Amino acid sequence: MESIQTIIGANLETIRKKRGLSLDKVAELTGVSKGMLHQIERGDSQPTVTTLWKMATGLQVSFSSLLKAPDSAVSFVSIADVSPIIEDNGLCRAYLQFPFDPMTKLEMFRIELDPGASYSSTPHNEGVYEYITVSAGEFCLKIKDELFRMSEGDGIRFAGNVPHQYSNEGEKQAVIQVVMYYAEP
């Protein structure tokens, strides 16, 4: 199985070349430095969730289009086989379970937040909706200036084109399932 940084690098390079973009132009579109983009394409650097979102938003592609490996007829995902994307010094881990599917316009993640974890997401493109279900623990979601405190089994849907922040203010790990829906722009 290829490493996550190798897959991300290959996907970024494929998207860039299909569009005829230089690294300079991708840097301009995404706000990620040319040097970092070059390291990512070579598979020398694993970007953070924040960097991946900057690239996805700037290139106007789904988040998971940067993470997905080649397709197969049946997709079984063992969490043990998925390399996490790390944020907040390792306190927040995002696992891509199902990459973007152009037929359904969905992608799915498992996110684990240790106590004290916090992740601020930059606004996504217009037409992106997040569906979140809390699988374990307690989870706080701040959307703009409104705070939602959620417990196991709770769910929420919101337009992702606004600033939002995930956090775990509890004493136990929080696990959430995130489904991203990409409506037509």
TrEMBL record:
UniProt keyword S-adenosyl-L-methionine present: no
UniProt cross-references to CDD domains, sorted A to Z: cupin_XRE_C, HTH_XRE
Could you tell me which SMART domains the record lists for this protein?
HTH_XRE
PROSITE patterns, sorted: HTH_CROC1
Any keyword Transcription regulation?
A: yes
Query: SUPFAM superfamilies under this entry?
Result: lambda repressor-like DNA-binding domains, RmlC-like cupins
Gene Ontology molecular function, alphabetical: DNA binding; DNA-binding transcription factor activity
Task: Give a Gene Ontology cellular component term annotated to this protein.
Answer: cytosol
Q: Which UniProt keywords apply?
A: DNA-binding, Transcription, Transcription regulation
Q: Where is the HTH cro/C1-type domain?
A: 12-66
What InterPro entries is this protein classified in? Answer: Cro/C1-type_HTH, Cupin_2, Lambda_DNA-bd_dom_sf, RmlC-like_jellyroll, RmlC_Cupin_sf, TransReg_Diox_bact_type
Q: Which PANTHER family match?
A: HTH-TYPE TRANSCRIPTIONAL REGULATOR, HTH-TYPE TRANSCRIPTIONAL REGULATOR SUTR
What is the designated name of this protein? Transcriptional regulator
The source organism is Brevibacillus parabrevis
Q: What is the lineage of its organism?
A: Bacteria, Bacillati, Bacillota, Bacilli, Bacillales
